[in-house]
Fold this protein.
Amino acid sequence: MPSVSTLIHNNLLQTPPGVSDTVFSTSINREELLNNAMIRDILVANPHSAKSETLMQEVDMRLEPMPDYMKDEILEGVFVLSAKELMEAKRDMDTQFYNYGFNRLLSASLTDTIPVPSDTLIALLNADGSAHSLMLQAWILFEAGDTISALNRMETIPTGITLNEQELAELTEQHILMQWLFEAPVLDSINLEALSNFVESSSSIVSAAVRSILIANNLLEYNEPYLIPDLTKSADISKPKPSSFRNQTQMIRVFPNPGKDYVTIEYNLGDNYTSGTYEVADQSGRIVKRGNLGRKTDQVVLDTFDLTPGNYYISLISASTNIASARFVISK
């Protein structure tokens, strides 16, 4: 509900890195809940959002257009590494180091001049516990001649770990190949056509394994293709415009008016001032809130939870001069 706008705004600003794009997308689309200034604050606090073309398109689709200077401020995040991105980079680096060490150990075990016992390899793969390692366990059993255990292992993998859609598709393709090899142990002209069909498998592992079988039996000539890098870019990187602020006459606007839990102050200091402060006074002239204005033109969300209902006056001050003022009402 709009009454909790400031609560949601503050929570999203204070939430640790890791807020998903789904949350940002929902926030952008809830215009009755979060205004442009709030959305700007949230996306600026999470610089990785500027790198999402989808989110920036949704910002452009808001019914109340976001001012260009606000979008430019968000887009400055294109050149900033957010805390979320740094955490993801560290996670990816740790994963890369682990995979490198594990794969070297596995490769050394499989290619050692002294054969490593199957149960040792299975224990190593079991310790990794990934879907790929568990499927490799089944193939080690199959190669060792324990075909029944190998097929059973393939069937029980989904009950031991949760597989994503890609892993489930890979398991299905490998299981089908293993079942076919179990039922057709002799490669003859009758089985050749069926085996050749596996070359077109969606699984690169299955396709490469079958292709190797055919090449080893002189049934296929294969030349490895050269992969040429694509030097074209699919999309331009969005960059902030050199001119960030609107050139308007000095002004101040407060909305919603009357307000309840918060109001948004939209201001422009004009050409003669570059920074200033604001002061909020009650009907008796007592200053109840004040703050700094860091930009020439901007919108500031003002929390009014602690203000009693009544009339208030806000003044823009720069160089000890009151340059603009406005009245607003708090109604609760």
Remarks:
- Residues 2-79 form one domain.
- The chain has three domains: 2-79, 117-216, 251-330.
- Residues 138 and 154 are 6 Å apart (CA to CA).
- Confidence is low (pLDDT under 50) at residues 242-249.
